Each structure stands twice: as C-alpha cells, then as structure tokens.
C-alpha cells in the first residue's frame, strides 16, 4: 500500500506537468511571435533610435533632424515600452547605451545601410539582367502598347538580347508549350489551361481593295454585297473569327490569290487582284495614301483578341517577368 504523502506528491507533479503543458500550448510559437512583432512595430521608431545613436544623444539628434527634443524622447520611450527593455541611460555622464541598446543599435545600423544601398542596387539591375528574351508573334501587328513596352524594356535592360520571330498563331502556341520561346503574342482559338493569357488589344479586320479594283471608292451596304467578288486569302495567317465571318457570309468562294504572308496578300489587293481582309491598323497607312479602300464600315466586321501568352511552367526567367511587367504598365497607362 502506497504512502498518502507519496500519492499526494504524485498528484501534484501530474497537475503541475499538465499546467505547464497547457501554458506552453497557449504561448505563441517563436516564429509566429516574431511575425506579430514585425507587423505591429512602428518602423519609424527604429529610424529615430538610429538617428539618436549616431548623434550620440537626443539633444543633438533633435537639432540635426529639426525636431523637438520632447518628441524624440517620447519616441524613444515608446520603443522601449514596445520592446520591454531599457535602451539607454541619460545622466550626468551623458548618453550611454545599455547592453540591449547596443544590440538594437547594431541591428539598426545594418538596416540603415541596406536602405541607403537601395538606389544603387536598383540602378545596378540594368547591368545585372542579361541573357536572351525570345518573342514569337504573328506578322504585322500594330500594337502601340507593345512597341512602347519593347522600347522601355530595352532602355532599362540594354544587356538583354531581344530575339523576335514571326510565325502563324498555331506555331506560336506550339513553340511556347515546347519552351522554344519565352513570350508569344497572337490570337488564340482555345485558352489552354497550362498557359497564361494577358489581353493586349482587339484587332479589327476589314475587307480592302486596291485602286484599280472596280469597287474602289464604293461602300458596301453589307457583307452580302461582296459575296460574288474574288478574294485574296491569307491562309494560315487567317484567324478563326475571320474564317467564320467569311464562311457565314459566303465570302471567298472565288479565290483570286493566296499568301500566308500578310504583306504579300496586301500587295495582291493593292494591285487589284482581289479583295483581302486586313487588320485595320496595318492597312491604315495605305488607306490614308489612297492605295487601299475599306469596303465595309461600322462595327459589323470580324474582331480578333490578341494576347500576350506565357507558360508558367517554363523555367523561371527574370527578363521575361520584367518584360511582362512593362507590357502591363503600358496597358495600364493606356486604359
């Protein structure tokens, strides 16, 4: 039979152990505690403390900062209360840091030095970013936001070599999936789940004819007016929206010419070979000079969304991310 005293001591030991366990669970984990401290701390107090330390006292720091001495004293007191320690002593011998104060002063000194290096480090990034940026796009895009982004990107990161290729939109997507290019700019038939799409602009397509064509100077009342005319088709460069529009209205049943290169298809249209659908922005200079004529006005024409396409699963590349950032900034400015 156990002694009552032994049983009581055993019970007390178990109770104390349970209490310690509960208290330990109630205390925040060190990492969580540190995160809360950093989030709730007024960082300006650290800056003022660093100024006081560098000035060897509150009075001189107040004069250098053009601040009132009581305001700095109050800031120092707030910091000490937040940390739960005394950081310095002020008396007949002058300003003196405590051991805790010296530890914090060393930390603030490193922090202040890092802050002072920010401008230099940001300017040095121009020299640090190097390598290649491979961009593949569909031909003859007229996209001011893209042009401005390329110009700004080169000015900021001149050491990056820009490699630009032109291809049909299907080839652009395939090249991205195979990681042959870093950025693709093209229309998209289907939004693939593994790719990321940033809308760049909407490309408007209209039918145009050259000066020697019988319909030059005539404004058609609708697509049906053009159904009996001969067309120059753009083959693989033709987007789905344009193909559906042509088939819906019976356009292109009579083919006078074809080219997978948009500039050559435009040449045939300018020479009067046939009517050709062209991007409005691309045709504008020739319309303004009188070499091409738009046969359909208004909104009832095909429109194609053009996207900046990237593959998030491709190897990380800082030049690609910086280039996308420039495009986003240009789109934001144009909005």
Automatic annotation (TrEMBL):
Protein name: LysR family transcriptional regulator
Similarity-based family: Belongs to the LysR transcriptional regulatory family.
SUPFAM superfamilies: Periplasmic binding protein-like II (SSF53850), Winged helix' DNA-binding domain (SSF46785)
One protein family per Pfam: HTH_1
Assigned keywords, A-Z: DNA-binding, Transcription, Transcription regulation
InterPro entries: LysR_HTH_N (IPR000847), LysR_subst-bd (IPR005119), WH-like_DNA-bd_sf (IPR036388), WH_DNA-bd_sf (IPR036390)
Molecular function in Gene Ontology: DNA-binding transcription factor activity; transcription cis-regulatory region binding
Species in which this protein is naturally found: Sinorhizobium mexicanum
Gene3D superfamilies per record: Periplasmic binding protein-like II (3.40.190.10), Winged helix-like DNA-binding domain superfamily/Winged helix DNA-binding domain (1.10.10.10)
